[in-house]
Amino acid sequence: MPKQKTNKSVAKRVKVTGSGKLTRYSPGSGHLKSRKSNKRLRRFRKEKAFDTTFAKHAKRMLGLG
Questions:
Q1: C-alpha 16 chain-centroid distance
Q2: According to the 3-state scheme, what is the secondary structure of 1-65?
Q3: 48 phi and psi, to 5 degrees?
Q4: With left for phi above 0 and alpha for psi between -120 and 50, is residue 21 left, alpha or beta?
Q5: What's the CA gap between 35 and 64, in Å, rounded?
Q6: Distance from chain centroid for Cα 28
Q7: What is the pTM of this model?
Q8: Cβ(60)–Cβ(52) under 8 Å?
Q9: How many CA atoms are closer than 13 Å to the CA of 42, on its beta-carbon side?
Q10: Lower Cβ count inside 10 Å, N or C end of the chain?
């Protein structure tokens, strides 16, 4: 049976914390910032946690379990 390949699109977007949780940044923060409110732009800077159901899928895509 061949080895599991890492899903590169997930690997580029996800960071694994020391305790094994997955974090991500919100999409939509790249351009057209002048029309977005300052409150919205501040929220883009913070890392978000995945919900547990998708975290399981993402970990499998990364080859972590």
A1: 9
A2: CCCCCCCHHHHHHEEECCCCCEEECCCCCCCCHHHCCHHHHHHHHCCEECCHHHHHHHHHHHCCC
A3: -110, 155
A4: beta
A5: 39
A6: 13
A7: 0.75
A8: no
A9: 3
A10: N
Per-residue pLDDT of the chain (65 residues; tens, 9 = 90+): 788 899 999 999 999 999 989 999 999 999 999 999 999 999 999 999 988 899 999 999 999 87
Query: Alpha-carbon distance 23 to 62, whole Å?
Result: 13
Residue with the two structure tokens 């409110």: 37
* Token pair recorded at residue 15: 């960071």
Instruction: Report the sign of the C-alpha dihedral through residues 44, 40, 28, 50, in that order.
Output: positive
64: Cα within 13 Å, side-chain hemisphere: 18
